[in-house]
Specification:
Structural class: alpha/beta
Distance between the termini: 59 Å
Helix content: 25-40%
Shape: globular
Strand order of the largest sheet: 1-6-5-4-2-3
Largest sheet: 6 strands, mixed
Radius of gyration: 22 Å
Number of helices: 4
Strand content: 25-35%
């Protein structure tokens, strides 16, 4: 009970307006709810709108190059996450046919620029990504990433941002412990 009183006093000492009901229990529950809501809004964004039509394991995929995504570490980050799930990948140019590759992965990414703390130079960061997995042209799954409300994941690596998407799109592929090694036999 003492902790609740202290938290309430500390919260009321913050700048801004605090309205209390006069009932300590009601005020405490409201404070806890408000805090939980704020913390949730600051958390990194999770997978948005994942739709997966196939849960079969996939061991090889061809990535369709998208030159409009202006992040040099996008494809390497994506390939690293795929490898953690035992998926080997190759990249092919958009508009060409992926030879001998029935499963393809296309992507879209939006980038913004900003300065990091204690830096004068502008650095790009990923704000949105969409991955679409296809087998012989038919959609197997799609997933999206959107940067969190407060941008707490703004400077996270591309791999960290794409990891939940890859996990959602490849539910039949268990996570390989070290991200290296050979995929399981087919």
């Amino acid at each position: 009970m003492r902790t609740i009183i202290i938290v309430t006093l500390l919260a009321s000492s913050l700048s801004g307006c605090v309205v209390t009901s006069g009932n300590l229990l009601v005020d405490s529950v409201g404070l806890v709810g408000s805090t939980a809501s704020s913390v949730r809004a600051m958390a990194p964004s999770s997978v948005q709108n994942p739709v997966v039509y196939s849960k079969d394991p996939i061991h090889e995929v061809c990535i369709e190059w998208n030159g409009s995504v202006a992040l040099s570490d996008f494809v390497p980050g994506l390939q690293g996450e795929l490898q953690k799930h035992g998926v080997q990948s190759r990249v092919y140019d958009a508009g060409t046919q992926a030879l001998a590759c029935p499963v393809t992965l296309s992507y879209v990414g939006y980038v913004k620029w900003d300065t990091k703390v204690f830096s004068d130079g502008y650095t790009p960061y990923l704000t949105y990504a969409s991955l679409t997995l296809r087998r012989e042209g038919r959609v197997l799954g799609t997933a999206q990433y959107r940067m969190g409300s407060f941008g707490s994941d703004k400077w996270s690596t591309v791999g960290d941002k794409l990891a939940p998407l890859v996990t959602a799109l490849f539910p039949g592929n268990p996570l390989v412990a070290d991200g290296a090694g050979d995929p399981p036999p087919q």
